[in-house]
Amino acid sequence: MQDITLTCKDCGNEFVWTAGEQEFYQQKGLTNQPVRCPECRKKRKAARAAREASDNQQA
Length: 59
What we know:
The chain is α+β, with helices and mostly antiparallel strands. Helices cover about 50% and strands about 15% of the residues.
Protein backbone atom coordinates (compact mmCIF):
# COMPACT_ATOMS: atom_id res chain seq x y z
CA MET A 1 0.00 0.00 0.00
CA GLN A 2 1.05 3.56 -0.58
CA ASP A 3 -0.20 6.99 0.49
CA ILE A 4 -3.15 8.31 -1.52
CA THR A 5 -4.19 11.95 -1.88
CA LEU A 6 -7.95 12.42 -1.56
CA THR A 7 -10.24 15.47 -1.70
CA CYS A 8 -12.57 16.22 1.20
CA LYS A 9 -16.26 16.14 0.34
CA ASP A 10 -17.06 18.95 2.80
CA CYS A 11 -14.27 21.54 2.54
CA GLY A 12 -12.70 20.55 -0.79
CA ASN A 13 -9.17 20.43 0.62
CA GLU A 14 -6.82 17.64 -0.29
CA PHE A 15 -5.60 15.27 2.42
CA VAL A 16 -3.33 12.24 2.47
CA TRP A 17 -4.75 8.84 3.36
CA THR A 18 -1.62 7.14 4.59
CA ALA A 19 -0.67 3.52 4.01
CA GLY A 20 -0.97 2.97 7.77
CA GLU A 21 -4.51 4.34 7.81
CA GLN A 22 -5.37 2.12 4.86
CA GLU A 23 -4.08 -0.93 6.74
CA PHE A 24 -6.16 0.07 9.78
CA TYR A 25 -9.29 0.37 7.62
CA GLN A 26 -8.57 -3.01 6.08
CA GLN A 27 -8.10 -4.65 9.51
CA LYS A 28 -11.44 -3.24 10.65
CA GLY A 29 -13.16 -4.59 7.54
CA LEU A 30 -13.88 -1.13 6.13
CA THR A 31 -13.95 -1.13 2.34
CA ASN A 32 -14.59 2.52 1.44
CA GLN A 33 -12.03 5.30 1.34
CA PRO A 34 -12.71 8.22 3.69
CA VAL A 35 -14.58 11.09 2.05
CA ARG A 36 -13.77 13.76 4.67
CA CYS A 37 -10.44 15.12 5.86
CA PRO A 38 -9.50 14.53 9.52
CA GLU A 39 -10.53 18.09 10.45
CA CYS A 40 -14.00 17.76 8.92
CA ARG A 41 -14.40 14.30 10.48
CA LYS A 42 -13.68 15.82 13.91
CA LYS A 43 -16.18 18.64 13.31
CA ARG A 44 -18.85 16.22 12.11
CA LYS A 45 -18.29 13.90 15.08
CA ALA A 46 -18.48 16.82 17.55
CA ALA A 47 -21.68 18.12 15.95
CA ARG A 48 -23.24 14.66 16.09
CA ALA A 49 -22.27 14.27 19.77
CA ALA A 50 -23.73 17.69 20.62
CA ARG A 51 -26.95 16.86 18.78
CA GLU A 52 -27.25 13.53 20.62
CA ALA A 53 -26.57 15.19 23.98
CA SER A 54 -29.28 17.75 23.22
CA ASP A 55 -31.72 15.01 22.23
CA ASN A 56 -30.99 13.11 25.46
CA GLN A 57 -31.63 16.20 27.61
CA GLN A 58 -34.99 16.81 25.97
CA ALA A 59 -36.18 13.23 26.52
